[in-house]
Amino acid sequence: MTLLRAKCIIAGDDTVGKSALTQVFHSDGTHYPKNYLMTTGIELIVKSITVPNTKATVELYIYDSGGKEMFSDHVISNWDGIDVFLLVFDVTNPQSLINCEKWLERIKDKSYNNHLMGAVVANKIDLKGRRDVDTNAGSEFAKKHNLEYFECSAKENLNIEEPFKAIAQSFHSHYEECLEKFKCV
Amino acid sequence: MANLALSSAGVSVILATSSDDGFPPENMIDGDPQTFWVTTGLYPQEFIVSFPAKVNADTVSIQGVNIKTLEIYKGINSKPTDFEQICSKEIERKENENVTENIQVNSPITHLKIIITNGYDHFVAISSVAVTGSAIN
Questions:
Q1: Could you give the count of Cα atoms lying within 13 Å of A177 in the half-sphere of its Cβ?
Q2: Interchain CB distance below 8 Å, B36 and A5
Q3: Whose CA, among A32, A77, A100, A121, lies 20 to 30 Å from A107?
């Protein structure tokens, strides 16, 4: 059996639903935080994911990071050695997608070798009437940066596990690649 | 000079913070440079090599891939306690290449604690930990 451990950063603007996404994922959909409680620093939670078709488990150390600009210096100082990340935006707020560029730059600064393993998550797709960012805009952004793209709703517990599974899978693939390289030197 | 840190001589790895069944920590002291121990994510990573009896160590050589910074500690008691730092090093970057780092010890030791405080990639491989010196009669 292989147990991998990854530092996973959840980044994005304030109020896009990073904590909701994290908590719904952590509780297997049983806990959705109904009231907004601003994350001022970092909330750390740990959850294991089994990588499909392998004997490997990835233990994700999830750093749910406050998105308010006021706390960004403090928050980012805890990001050293990022392994994987989710970049979250709110489909009712186009500015939150634009700001993903900025969050991505900050993530790159803290990554090994600029080697990125992450996904873009469009949250709040339950708010159909207020949606202001279409699938195309979100997936174009993801494609441009060579990231996977997911649409989800933390409130409806829709498609929450998929982005986490995807990054766990890329982390495991990278581990396998490293093993192959190590065997050759 | 002969390598004292060999499992065939009764040396063991009594602690390692990562383990993948296919790449156990014993691979570092089996005398085979083809086999290795691999870390499985996050830093720091740590392991302790223990000798069956105290030895006079001259140097420690660590051979691995992607190690960025490491710290080495020695333990002279029979139990693996009260470690004292020998050095803290930054290793030059070499892409996918085995790098050997030699460290002077010049002291009796029973245990060696090695902490990889950071790596150049998400994962580090160590193929060998070798100790030169002499046995204490």
A1: 9
A2: no
A3: A32
